[in-house]
Each structure stands twice: as C-alpha cells, then as structure tokens.
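I'll show a record.
***
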Amino acid sequence: MAFPLTALTTTGFFSWLIFDRFRMTSDERVAQRMDEACGSGGQILSGLDLITMRSSTSPVSLGSLGPLARGIASVAIDEASKRATNIDTPAAAPWTLAQKSVMVAGAMFSFTLLFAFIAPHAFGTSLKRLIAPSIHTPPYSPLMFDVTPGNTVLNFGQAMEVTAAISGGSVEEVMLVLGDPDDPSVDRAKMFPRGAGTWQAVLPRVTESTSYCVTAERGRSEMFKVEVLQTPQIETLEFTMTPPEYTRLPPRKGRYPQDRIAGLIGTKVDFSVKSNRPLDRGEVRRLSDSSKVELFSTPSDPYAVSGLIMIERSESWSVHITAKNGASSESPAVFDVELAIDQPPIARITQPQQTSYATPDSQVPVAIVGEDDFGISRLRLYRIIDGSRPIPIDIAVDSTRRVIQGTSMLPLDAFELQPGDRISLFARADDTRPDKIQGGESPITEIEIISQRDFNRIIAARQGQQMLENKFKQARRMMDQLASELADIQKEIESGDPKDAAKQKELQARMDQLQQKMKEVAKELDKLANQELPLEMDKEWSELLKEQAEKLNEAAAKCESMSAKGKSPKEQADVMQKTLDAMRKEQSEKVDQPLDALKKIAPLIASESRFAQLVSRQRNVVDELERFRKEDAVRDEADRQSVVKLREEEASIRDELERLLSDIESQAEKLGDDPDFQELRASTLEFVEAVRQSTVDSELSEARGSLAEFQAGRGYSHAAKALEELEKFMSQCKSNGEQAGQCLKKKFSPGNSSGNSKGSGGENGSSLSRMLSQLGMKPGEGSGYSMRGESGNNVGLYGNQPFAQPSGEGRGENGQLMPARGNHATGATSRDQSDGYEIELPESVQGSTGDVPLRYRRQAETYLQRIAEQAK
C-alpha cells in the first residue's frame, strides 16, 4: 500500500501548488501588483472595482448612483487607467511567477517519470485503479501474470486450455477461478506446473459464458471473459442419390446413419441437413483431399441447409453446419462413400458347347447371352471358318434390358464343309456407358466337322444303351398297342352272341382293320430294323425285329385266309393272340431282360475303374510325400504349400472312396433276387464291408491330420499304409468286375439264361464284348470290363440320329444332340431361316441367373476360375 499512498499524497500536493499558481494570475492579484509597481496606493485596484460595478447588473451597480457619484467614479477610473498604462508589462506580470509554475510542473512530471521507471507495474496498476475505478483491476502485486487465451469465444461444450506464465516471484500454488474471485462459492481449479514458471489447467467442457482469472498467493491476474456460443446439433441428415442418366436407375433416398452412400462416378448426392438451431451455412468435406462443397441455407426453413455433391471415388465425407451465431457443430456426421464400378459386360455362348462336333449336313443352333449392370447397346456373334475373316451377325437388342438373349442358326450344309474343317464362334457385347463404351467377349467356341460314321460312334459311346432302349421301346409300344386292341375285340367276342349275325359282321370288320394294322406295324418294324445303330448287338437284335415283322405278316395273312374260309372272329383272334404273345415273350427274353441287366451291372463294371483311379491318386500322393519322409516338420514356405495341396488331396480321396463304396452298395442292392446275380451281389457287398472294416479310412484321416500340422514324415507313413491297404483290395475289385462281365454275358445269351451256349464265350459273347467297347467300356483283365472316359459327355454333338436323346429333355448331358436339316424326330423347336433359327433356350439361360446381380456372379466366376487355376 506504500506506493499507492505515496503517489496519491504527492499528486495532491503538486495539484495544490498548481492551483495556487493559477490563483496568482487573477485580475485582483494583477491589479494589486500594478499598484505596488507604481506606488499608486490602490488606485488601480479601485478603478478595477469601479469598472466591475459599471458592468454589473446587480442593484449596487454604478448606474444606480447619483450623478455626482458617477462623475467621481469616472474620474477615478480614468486616473487608474492612466497609471496602469504607464506601468511596464514585466512589472505587472513578472517572469518569476511563470518560472515557479514551470518548475512545479516539471518537478511533477519528473517525479511521475521516475515513479513509472522504478515501479512500472505498480505505476500502471495504480494509474488504472485511479483513472478507471469501475474496471475490476486487481490490486498491485509483485507477481505478474501472462494468461492465454485471455478473452475468448468457445463453442458449446468445447474444451478450454488456460496457460499462465507467472513472473516476479516464485509461487507454490496457482488456482484458476471461474467468476468473481472475492466470492468463495465460485468454482476453482488447481493449475499444474509445466516448468519455467508456466502453469496450466484444462476445462474439458465449457457450457456457459463466464469470467475467469488466475490467482497465486496474494496476487491475481486480470479478469477475462469467456463467451460460450450455443452450437447447433444435426437432428436429421437425409440424402437423395441420383445415378447417371444412362443407367436408367431411379433416384434412391437414404438417411444417415441407417443407409450407406454408394454409386457410380457421376452419381449426384443431394443433402438436406436439419438442426435444432437456425443455420447460416454448412459444408461437406472430402477427407481424402480436404476439398469442400458448400451447403446453403434454405429460405423456406431457417433450420435447414442443403447442397449437391458428386461421387468421384471411394472415400469418407464429413458434414459440418454453422449456426447464425457463428457456432459450428461440435460433432460432424462422418460416413464412408463407396464407389461402385460399372463393370464391362459379359458375353456368353450358351449353345453349342465350347468344344463341339457336327456333321456337314447339320444345323447348329447358337444361343448367346449378353449381360451388363445397366444395359447392352450392341450384341454380335462372330463366325470364323478355318481361320478366315470373322463375319459378324448382329443380334437385336433392347438397350433398356440388362440381359439380352439371342439365337442364330448355322446351316452347315450351306457352307460346303468337309470333315476336318473347323468353325470358331465368339460373341461380343457392348454396354451403354456414354463416356467410355466397354465391351466383353466370350471364350472361343470350336465346332469341328466330323463324318456321320464318327458321329454315330460318339453317340454310341455316350447314349448307346439309351439308343437301344429307344429303338426297341418303339417296337414294344407298337406290339402292346396291337395287343390292347385285340384284347378289346376279344372282350366283345366273349360278351356277344355267336348267333347274332350283325354283331359277328361288326366284329369281323374290326378284325379286318386289326389285320391291316398288323401289316402296317410289320412295315414299321421292318423300318426300325433297317435303321441301324452303330452297335454290334443292334445288328443281331435288328434281325429279331425283321423276324417279328415276318411273323406279323404271316399272322395277318393266316387270319385273312381263315376269314375267307368262314372261320369265326374268335378263331382269328386266338391266332393273333398266340402270335403276339410269342413275339412279346421273345422280345422280353432276348432284348428287355438283357438291357435291364445292362442297366444294373454296367455301374458295377464302372466301379472297378473308379476304384483303380483312387488307388492311382493315392499312389501319386505317396510319391509326392516321399521326399519328406525323413522330415519331422516342414518349414519352407513353398514346401508347406505343397503339403497343403496334398492334405486336400487326401481329404478328397477319403470322401470319394466313401461315395464310391456307397454307390457300389446301392448298385449291388438293385441286383435284386435274380439267381444269376446272387453270387455277384454277395461278393460286391463283401468287398464293400471289407474296405470299410479295414484301416484305410483311419490311415487317410491320420495322414490328413499330420499334413495339417505340417508333419510330412508322419503323414507319409500313414499315406503309405493307406495305399498298401487299398492295393490289397485291387484284386478283389477286379474279380468283381470279371464276375459282373460274366453275369452280363449270361443275360445276353439269346433265349438261354444259363449261359451254356453262345453267351459264355461263343459268337454272341464276342458281340457283347464289341458292344461294351462301343458303349465306352473296354475289356479289362480276364473277362472283366472297366469304363473309359471316351463317352464324349463334355462336348456338344450336332447331327442326325433318330434314337439319340432329344435336345432339351433334361437328361443332364453336357452336349446337345440336334437334328440334321428337315429332321424333327428329336423334338427340337426349329424353323428354317437364313442365319436365323429359333430354339428353346436352356433353362439355365432362361431364369437361373437373371435375378442374380451381375457383380455377385462376376465375383463368383472370378473365385471359381482362381480355384480352377490353382488346381491345375
């Protein structure tokens, strides 16, 4: 308090001196000094008084006196004026008076400067408190405070960091005071030292306006103000995504955060943001490059802002809003933006197969499909004959559709092709993208021209059994129809009166019709017999059809003769019945039963080959693992990948073996109670049980487990044991195949199920061997047979074979049999056109993929292709 009191006393004293000096310059004091200077005895002062009275408006002014008094006063005033005129100015206003005043003022100024120099802090504090007592200036203290941020403006809930640099002395404790420091109830926060006299405190969340200061011992800083702005909150954020026009997709609305933002390049996203406070503006920030897009206030709704931004890449966006008071939202809306890719279209040739064979006179239907995310602008089929220039064929498209299906017919006879020529086909589809048209091409489809003989051989290997069945089913249906009509006539004969002439005449007319129909059936059977199949057994069975055709003609002729001789319809019907029964029995014994046996036994014959393939695969695994037989653990990365593949192969062999055993067991059960098959059935079931009771399954499982742990040496040991066990069963498997072949020969022995004639090794046995070879089975060791993979099921076939499985009947074949020109026996839908042919598209094209989004199917295709490449 000493400095302020001293300053106040000194200031008061010098103020009094200055006042006294100014008082010496009044008119009366100057008149007195003039009287003293001229020795007039007070005449000048009296004249001054009289002048004052003359100008005064008071009741005792000079004007209120009488004439004599006014005259005397005027004389006195004039005399005083003369005396004052004769006095020198320095005598009336001596410099000494001014000198004293200047000296006093200089002393006061010097003292003030000295005070400010010696104690500037104290001087400043005192001056502030003296000049502006209404301002909350802290009292003087030797401590000086440098506080940041000082006066500040914060958003609602924003953190505030206060730093105080204190100089002028050391302190032990510093407090941050929120509000009036003289009020003990206000909040106080302890500040923490940060070194070099710096103290710091952080207020994590400021929610209201206040004042603050920093106190340390008996000193404190100035009072600072904190203004808190009430920040806006995002209540709703809605957006509308408008895809590019060429996609023809409708706009899609969404709401944050439930819906995601995704779209192609150029997709427009229209934002609408609503807040709990009036908004001034907003912005969408791209976090990838810090660019911004402004959101503008909506005149119709002061609480909303809106704006438009376009999707350019996959990135993150954040939405910020600013209220009318300048406060910004404290928590922006942040979300990921996914850029969708407009994939190039896919073109596929769904028919014919990628590798196909056709005869020179056939017509090959071509079905192509173009698919795109948003539309196809052009779809073309290109045809290349023996490496010539590609010739395009345009397919009509509807650009509004995502999937376009088109067909075309290749009339091969118009191209004058020869066996050995090759036709290459591929399709190309272009999408509707305006800025960059994208195209996709299908894989090359190859059609090789083959002779009719080669075509028949492939068909026989693929569908030989079915072709035989189809041919002789036609013969059986015709005979069954004759037998059915004859049975109807016989019922009427039995129920009719033999003496009823009219009825007997009617029955004879029907018998005559039946005789005529028998002749027609005989002609059809003869035609069937002449339609040769590329199978050795067909030649023998076709002779049977010719014999049956002759028997029908003989029966019809005999009935005509009996009718001419007056025999009754009943006698004629008995002759027909006897003939038809013998024919049907003969076909059943010589054709139907052998074919039924072939159906049952052929899978067992094929099982031998399947088992041999598994043994071969297991042998390959053992050979691959042999180089690891002495290693406890595999550590090299390349070797570990090889071990992983071998582990998967072991798992595949184990699963395939279980499926094979289940198939063999099921096939053996289907042999039924036929005495010729009982020994085969028993030995087959015994084989299945023996394999299951062996250690093969456990050794394969152990091998797989060891390889999963990269214990290749132990895996080799178990794999080798599994191979050893499998090889033990090879001879038994071959024996079953031989036994199956012998059983089959018994059934193919015409009219003799015991097999004591040709069926066991004579001419018919040789024919059976050739037929089995033609059906895709080749003789194994001894008398057994095994399937070979030459059936052609992985290729397309196009040509004329009336007994082949028709196209589109769903047998599960990969290849499709199509008729030659003018032959519709297979049931294919067709109409002749120049490069135009309508067909029924496969079911897989009609609806199985159209509902699946292209991008998902593309991902699946890529995944499966990668697996296929790894498996090579």
